[in-house]
Amino acid sequence: MFILCSTLAILTSTVLAIDVQAPVEPTSGALTTIHWTPDPAVPVFSMELVHPDFNDALAIANSVNGSLGYLKVDLPAVPADDGYTLQFVNISDIDDVYATSPVFAIAAPPTTSQAPTSALSSTSISASAPA
Ligand SMILES: *[C@@H]1O[C@H](CO)[C@@H](O)[C@H](O)[C@H]1NC(C)=O
Ligand SMILES: *[C@@H]1O[C@H](CO)[C@@H](O)[C@H](O)[C@H]1NC(C)=O
Question: Where is the composition biased (Low complexity) (predicted)?
Fold first, then answer.
């Protein structure tokens, strides 16, 4: 019984070769870092961004060197929403999925039209003046 269970565990870990982490606080259209646990069985893969509302997965990186363990990628401009996952797929067949990340949310990009830097600077200067 124990031997049978061990064999199943090995088979399972062979199928799910890579452990993909969800990106931390990713923002639409911005640089984000994706981490995974390298597996020699998967030396190269492509990354796809998947959402239930998308008709097709969006390719965000092609022919990634799997031994690196992380990659900085520019996310495409996508709707700010929950329910995104990353899929690591065969570089010649995106339906051949090696691994899927946990579900995560992508935030809207910050608005840059307000709060000029000079206003922030003068606030911090006056706040520190009494000391
Ligand atoms: C992947 O990266 C590793 C470590 O930097 C390097 O040794 C290896 O040659 C690279 N593989 C490919 C296919 O570029
Ligand atoms: C990727 O897909 C192609 C085409 O289906 C297949 O020939 C190849 O063996 C696959 N590569 C891996 C590493 O699974």
Answer: 115-131
The DSSP symbol for 67 reads G
Structure token pair of residue 36: 């995974």
* pLDDT one-digit tens code per residue, 77-109: 999 999 999 999 999 999 999 999 999 999 999
Residue nearest to atom 12 of ligand 1 (CA): 65
Question: What is d(CA 84, CA 73) in angstroms, rounded to the nearest whole number?
Answer: 15
User: Which of 22, 29, 109, 34 is CA-nearest to residue 74?
Assistant: 29
Atom of ligand 2 nearest to the CA of 93: 2
- The verdict on the CB of residue 68 being under 6 Å from ligand 1 is yes
Element counts in the chain: helices (H) and strands (E): 2, 8
> How far is ligand 2, taken at its centre, from the CA of residue 94, in Å?
10
